[in-house]
Queue: 3 jobs
Job 1
Amino acid sequence: MSMRVAIPSIVDNLKSQIDFLQPLYEAITNSIEADATKISVIFEKDLTFGEKEYPPKITGFTIIDNGVGFTEDNRNSFSEYLSKYKLQLGCKGIGRFTWLKVFSNIKIESFTKTEKVNIDFNESFSEDAIQITKNVSSDTKTTITLSNVTSKYYDSGKSKDLRKDAELRKIKDNIEEHLLVYFFLWKKEKNKNFDITLQIDKETETISSNSNNITRLKQEVFSVKEDCFNDTNIDFNLYYNFKSDNKNRHTLYYCANGRKVIEFPKDIGFNKNFPDRSSSTFLLTSKYFDERIDDTRNKFTFDCKDAEPTLNNPLPMPKINIELKNKVSAILIKKYPNLKEDNKNIINDCINENPHLAKYIRNISTGIFPDKQAILKKADSDFRIEKEKVKNDFVKMLRSNEIDTDEFQKNISHLNDMCNRELAQYFHYRQNVINALNKLNKENDKREKLLHNLFMSMGTISDKSDKVYSSNIWLLDDKYMSYTNAFSDKSIKKIKECIMKNENTKSGHTQGSLKEPDLTIFYNKNKTTNGTTKNVVVVELKAVGASTDKKMVSTSEINRNLGIIAEEIEGIETLYGYIITHLDDSTKEALRKDQGVRELFAVGNESILYYYNDNIKDKKGSCKPCHVYILSTETLYRDANARNKVFLDIVKNTK
């Protein structure tokens, strides 16, 4: 009986790209299923120069076992496409064709107890090519040699090389990882032992059915209800173990017919080290998977991402994964009791650092070990998508001929929520600035430049058309955010030129034109019958760690600058001066002795000092109201932090 289907067609129909070592996995399982107890695999490698830089590759292998050999039943199965001879062992009758996907020439020599069998297996194979001679022996032995890598895996002309490196330890790891569940189930259910020896040149490695990797798998059983068609429970077996090897390597696979198929998805996988850096193995098996594995054994016959049940896949993988994730989580939390609290802290950190994304962070299905960056990336994407949808829904509603009351209320509510979250994003930015101010306080920093740039970059000019992040004047008070012009470390001459240019008036000579106030802010610009009026804020900054003498100079500097501005710039209604530094005890004591200085109130342990300067006059000699405040950077931090926290707490708790 010849094969009824052309072998090249069978091989071509194996569409999926299979692993280069797939023929090896199939050959090993064939040997074990033939009751072999001793299996040897001898690898051939190519000869290359400079092996350290270009390691040699596997060119083929020979597998020798002491199984029952190619008996008549085995030969009939071998010659039949999709044979059901070993179906009870999870075999699909297709494995030997994966050999021809990778290797073009396979030679088989097998000694049964009564016969010697020789087979040249290639794409021209037919049953007639099987050579059988009589042989009487109590020993059985089968030798299979796979050689001549196909162009699908090695083509020097096209610079294509999918062969594996001739590194025996890695090959052993690949075999154990791929066939671990197969080895385990064979040992558990058949109670049969085997030893596999791997060899390259004189180097050898051994895989034994009695090794710890195979014998120490634990088992958890769970069921998932398939409630769309048959309303039945489908059983799953989760096999797992942990290995204290400090390598943090994890094998996490869905398995079918005793082989690994595909990895668990990322939200069930481990993207972070275990506390003790142990390695782990988690393998999920089920008859449900066995019945739905494709011919190449490296994927299922359904789409693992499809959440809708079908006749072929009545229990979608996402539903299975819910229970799988719960099981894996429970196992890990039992082994690592602090894991649950650690994961909770990661989520809280994400929310605290990005309060505007709180709603989206809480809704994300995180992995066993939440990845902070992945969570924030997903939350930000969800936020942007919803924001665009809310905007489009609102515009669509406004364009409709008639607006439904309930729809209007719903859209307004969604729009308000988006506005609050956009605002929260800005307040989160502000919190970073506030934290930077606190850092300068704690470190008693002596660099005035850092404090200056925190408020507004030195040497810059800002107006109301600038972006919201161009200055941090709000650190003083939110009311100053309505400024029309702000100047950082600019001369009074330059300030006057800008102000007069905007008001279309000519600028004359400026007294003290080279003086450069640290910050000069104009706001609340109003039109009156007498012309334009404006208020002005002048800020003098001194480094947190500056000496008391340098801090005391601030009072004379602020008064001088306030006086020059009042004289040179028309239309000023009220002037406010701020001296900002750290008020240590000696500085506070010295300032309290200045005439007219008094304490207004205290925030925490810090005071706000104040005096009214009634000697500031304009060009016409008229006195101008002038209020001067001396603030500690600690007070400024506490006040700004309290104002910011109120809003952020509201947004964090918004669902």
Job 2
Amino acid sequence: MRKNFVIVLFCLANLSLFAQHYRDTVYQYTFGGIQNDICNQIRATPDGGFIMIGTTNSFGAGATDFYAVKVDSNFNHQWSATYGGGMSDEGFSVTPTLDKGYAFVGFTNSYGAGGYDVLLVKTDSTGKEQWQKTYGSSDWDFGYSVKQTSDSGYVICGLTYSYGKGNGDVYVIRTDKKGDTAWTKAVGDSGYDIGKSVYVEFDSLYFITGSTTSYGCADTNVYLVELNNKGIVLKDTAYGGVKKTTIGNSIEPQDQGGFVISGYSDISTSSMRMSPFFIMMDDNAHIQTWDTNVDFHTGVNICNDGIQCPDYLYVAACTGNEAALGGLDMMTMLMYYAPGNKGNGSYDEGPYEGGTGNDGANSCAVANNANVAFAGFTDSKGAGLSDIFVCRYKTCGNIRQDDSMYHVFKAYTDTLPITVGINEQVQNDIMVKVFPNPLSTDATVLVQADVADKYSFSLYDINGKCVINKKQLSSSGYGQAMLHFAKDGLQAGTYLYKVSDRNNKTVNGKIIIE
């Protein structure tokens, strides 16, 4: 009989559960070069250290490359490496492997069959590449999460436009130990369905979380997909409600059986405020408690990852804009959940960390010495335009909102070979896809960029008249944002569009309306 599973997403509250009256230390680190470097996932390693995977255009062979950084338990740099080709390659997930190496997954348009393809890179314990594989077809295909199975094979989840029914479907890939495909599956319907994180249970069940616009009563809903090891979908369910947006970003096990899913939701149907939250469910996926009502804030707080610490304590890695430090800041959340309490956990808002620029947390991990690390990005500190940013605490219980904490900062400027062709075009690399194009009734605009940002969409007729003015795109995580728009009263013909970020960097293109 398989384990019960619990879905927990973190919500904001102003409780002081872990009050401590002594001064503690937060250790801050940056890693990178003179351009843009970001960590998308951090994971603990068997030797007590951490492995990080992200994206760089400071180093490597092309516009962007996978960027892996290995550190010891005290965050001393051990090695770093880049993987990719002459164009754009972005790394999103890492798993330590049974042979003491690592597997990294992301996407590439340097190799493969289509515009973008899933890229899986296998290395030894020192980061030396052993092999790489691509998956996908003639359209766009992205990889966001990878786990290894006991036979040394891999399970990958992501997003595909090459296969499936709609405007993007959950993409699941099962491989053998050499990365050769055993089977693939596209899951979803006519809307936008994405898989962001996969968890493997007993090598026989694969649980994937993400978001969907195909199912559920809200605009975007948390999506949970359960498959067996043959690729047969056993269950796919959407969880939403009165909110316009509910996003699932990561799924991790908890030691009493079950799962922790981290994500965020809008606070109200009339507001752009975003906040982490949690759901309690039984093993039949019946919601027992969904607590999203505790909120004392006015800004945006997005949870990207969560993991269990000892003593039923959970931590979440968030990005928010409520502190007075700068634009966006790295934020931590804690939740205490005792077995049998039907989801009535208590919450503690941890400190905001960063500077006068934009800083954020994309992932968190707990080492075997109980150190907990939050990793993401910063343009407030470090060597370049943006760097990998890490905050490390001695234990989960030492994380708290306390301005008296000591701060110890160390910057590491990497010595990898500098990338070829650093220029303004690379810095402004924003990729836009409009589908279907030509359109007859409605279309979706999808933006893919290195770092999360706010984007607006404007549409002009052939005479330059603006017919859609700066309509905001909704973030769907991992540097992606999207917008649905309808033809409505627009006449058939050729139109020009402009997608702009908050710094007025733009991408222009053409749309044909039938």
Job 3
Amino acid sequence: MKRRETLRGLLRYLKPHLPVFILAILCALAVVAGQLLSPFFAGKAIDCIHAGGIDWGPLKNHLIAIGISSAAAMIFQWILAVLSNRIAYRVLSALRKDAFKKVEKLPLKYIDNRPYGDVASVIVSDAETVSEGLLLGFTQLFTGIVTIAGVLGIMLAIRWEIALVVFCITPLSFFVARFIARRTFKSYRAQVEARADESAFADEMIAGLKVVKAFGREKKNEQIFSEKNEALRKTSLKAVFFSSTTNPSTRFVNALVYAAVVLAGGYFVISTAGMGVPFTVGGLTTFLQYANQYTKPFNEISEVVAEFQSALASAGRILTLIGEKEEPSDEHLPSLGRAQGAVKAEDVAFSYDPERELIKHFDLDVAPGMRVAIVGPTGCGKTTFIGLLMRFYDVDEGAIYVDGHDVRSITRASLRENIGMVLQETWLKTATVRENLTMGRPDCTEEEMIAAAKAAKAHSFILRLPKGYDTLLGEEGVLSEGQKQLLCIARVMLCRPPMLILDEATSNIDTRTEKLVQEAFAALMKGRTSFIVAHRLSTVQNADLILVMKDGKIIERGRHADLLAEGGFYKELYYAQFAK
């Protein structure tokens, strides 16, 4: 995303906080006014001290004025900080909320093509960088610009000749800041991307540490991480180099301004001595203080510029995510209602990559209540068909019907409410056992929950947990993979949906427990349309229909005994697992 588009996007998030932002600007003006008045009264106070003595009355008044203006500047500075933080963190909250909401609405293809760690880095780290560097910098930039303009105006009123000298040197500061800012933005954008890449890799490796150790990939991963870390080091060094040159460069220009004021002011003090309107030592002191106030914002702005560029780069990433194309809304479509369970697929074709076909010419007709098993080698399209049935993806060609309705013509929510899924990969949230079990039916009774847990053979081990059903998973309860899968099975049994999908649902369970769970599944599947995806053919022998897939096509279909009698590919699969 280009810098201009990024700024426009951020301004949209600032718009709801416009009243607070205007109040912050007024406070910034009050701060600048207080800071600009102090040097004026300080110069007047110095002029009260002269060869003839000290004018105590006026001196006292000027000192009181200095105290009041300084105190006012301090109070408004505090209010400004409070308002700035309020705006910054509310915008940060809105950015993160919209980014997370967007992730939930994005098609699965978007997530499939990106590391999870990269997406998480955008929501957490990049949003934080925006609030710290960009939004807080807005006020500092505004205060600095107003200070520069105000000081320049006062200097012109006091002694326009000296102000003209200052004004002539000023463009040099803008040139230096602009020159460095362009290079800093590119460097920080590269740094943000390199950091996200490294974070995503680290997140993936930590999550899959068991697999890494099992395959002895530690050294290889260390090498890959070192390469990514070196890339981040180089981009960070380059970004820091350019950003660190800003402050010394502007300080050099500021020193030139100060020197010019000293020389020109000293000349006018000497040359106007004895005239009607002399340029006094107090006036020169005031001018020097204003020169410092004039140059100080350039230093502050130069410090903000580095954070500003980093924040812009991060803002570009998070706004790009928020601007991604969502999965088409289906709120206008009718609801499926309670499904009977008839499923039909007509000449379905689908591929993740347009250049590589996966499922093609897929036809299927399932009556309500049938138990359909889908078997075949890894990568043949079994789980992909399940994803199409659930509308995690839409077919490229053909159509899938549930109770005569094209799944694309009904809402996804109503379709998925009718289907219970138990996957090979378990998913439990950090919550109590009770909350995990009742996720699909929060209004169920205690008796129904316990009955489902007993049916899934999970009740006994739940009772052995520290607090039983109120045990907080992830902290108080450490479960095996098999126990986690039993909880997922119990969750589906509690919902009792009209259709079931079991994708290697008993893969992590021991043989004895599997037999018991299969009996529970048999009771649960009675009268319900069920799709069973399995590699272990012992779990599909009682299916009403077995689909044998290979290379995205159904090559055989029938019951277990009939397929064995045919002596085809199913028989090869079966005898590869069981001796004759």
